């Protein structure tokens, strides 16, 4: 089974092939965990999101038909996981807004990439990135740090693909202007 690519495995998973699902998981879980940990430092939450993501992938694999525009099965899985992570953050935020009596209030850990940028002392790049609008930073994170395509970024952020491309262009122009 090792000669099959992830798309072929996913098609087999869609037909109920558990061995194909095991192989798909073995191939994708390590990098998925790394990508999720870039966004969240809570190992328990990452584990929960991974479990939810693979369960969703198992259930939806039959509807996966591939992407003629160059997206991959791994990109499809990342989109599922990223949405699950956002949902988990929202659930946590709702529960953390009103702490129960006697319960300690937990601070939310910053994303790993934010810590890296914060660690650049008064760097021009960090300052320029900090001045970007949040929607421009989100597109840059998805495409540059996470390596997603415009189509995958569109699915992840829930905006049209043309909007993603426009935001990337605007972000580059603003960064170039700020750094020159």
Automatic annotation (TrEMBL):
One of its GO terms (molecular function) is DNA binding. Pfam families: Sigma70_r2, Sigma70_r4_2. GO terms for biological process: DNA-templated transcription initiation. Residues 124-174 form the RNA polymerase sigma factor 70 region 4 type domain. Residues 24-94 form the RNA polymerase sigma-70 region domain. Keywords: Sigma factor, Transcription, Transcription regulation. It comes from the Bacteria. Belongs to the sigma-70 factor family. ECF subfamily. This is RNA polymerase sigma-70 factor (ECF subfamily).
